[in-house]
Design a protein that fits this description.
CATH topology: Immunoglobulin-like
Distance between the termini: 52 Å
CATH architecture: Sandwich
Largest sheet: 5 strands, mixed
Structural class: mainly beta
Helix content: under 10%
Number of helices: 0
Number of strands: 8
Oligomer: single chain
CATH superfamily: Immunoglobulins
Length: 116
């Protein structure tokens, strides 16, 4: 039973909560609006966590068009927010996969975007 005014903690506890989302709500990029995403991470542990986020961009034929990676450090019990630019300028519709790897947390996030 949950008492009024309190929230029940989920059974799913993540060492690090990660959200990656495009700068443009409609995920529509162009030369005027370069491919840019934001990363929001919250470290739920009492030690700093250093991780790597790999990204892979694939076309509609599931062919890899571009890939890259970045390292991030999230201090103990803190939030981290940063934007990152992906140097990309090929017209089309794409799927982007983010592989998130921290010592105590891994996950995959998949999104899509267009470039005009």
């Amino acid at each position: 039973m949950v008492l009024p005014g309190l929230t029940q903690q989920s059974d799913m506890y993540a060492a690090i909560d990660i959200s990656i989302y495009p700068q443009r709500v409609n995920s529509d990029f162009s030369k005027k609006h370069p491919v840019r995403f934001f990363l929001l991470a919250k470290n739920n542990l009492n030690t700093a966590q250093k991780g790597i986020i790999d990204y892979t961009i694939k076309n509609l034929l599931d062919e890899i068009v571009q890939s890259g990676k970045m390292e991030i450090l999230v201090n103990a019990g803190k939030k981290f927010k940063d934007g990152f630019l992906i140097n990309f300028s090929k017209k089309g519709i794409y799927r982007i996969e983010f592989d998130i790897n921290f010592p105590q947390h891994t996950e995959k996030q998949i999104g899509k975007f267009t470039y005009q």
